[in-house]
Amino acid sequence: MRKRKQVSEIQNSTFLAKGVSIEGELKASGVIILEGELKGDVLYASKLEIRDFGRLIGNINVEVAEINGFVEGDVIAGGMILLKAGAEVKGDLYTNKLIIEQGAFFSGISKMSGSQLSLKEIPILDETQSIAANA
Predict the structure, then answer these.
(1) How far are the Cα atoms of 1, 27, 115, 119 from residue 24, in angstroms, in the given order?
(2) What is the residue-averaged pLDDT of the chain?
(3) Would you kindly state where each structural domain of the chain is located, as residue ranges?
(4) Which of 32, 66, 71, 130 is the most exposed place for a label (fewest CB within 10 A)?
(5) With 90 as the cut, is the pLDDT of residue 78 above it?
């Protein structure tokens, strides 16, 4: 059964390779793997994986966020946020489960919910807004 899930994730993946830079909003229902640079929001993905060289300037609203690169913006994950040892995040974190590995850098506030967050419950903000300011 594990093999079938891995094949399914690969088929439903969006990959932004190292050296590629995109500006604009990215919406996907599957897995997004970011090794390049994105200036814009990421919405609705089941999982966002930002690898070592990945850079994202914008807000994130996904089910699971696994970060080992750079993020400047607020991160909302209905399930879990994992900041790996190489992560640098400048923004606020909103999730049900937060894991920060030793060596990760985080500048902002974190807010955890006792129940599963719904992606529809939390508004997507533009560049001039802050979730903390609206809370």
Answers:
(1) 36, 10, 31, 20
(2) 85
(3) 2-119
(4) 130
(5) yes
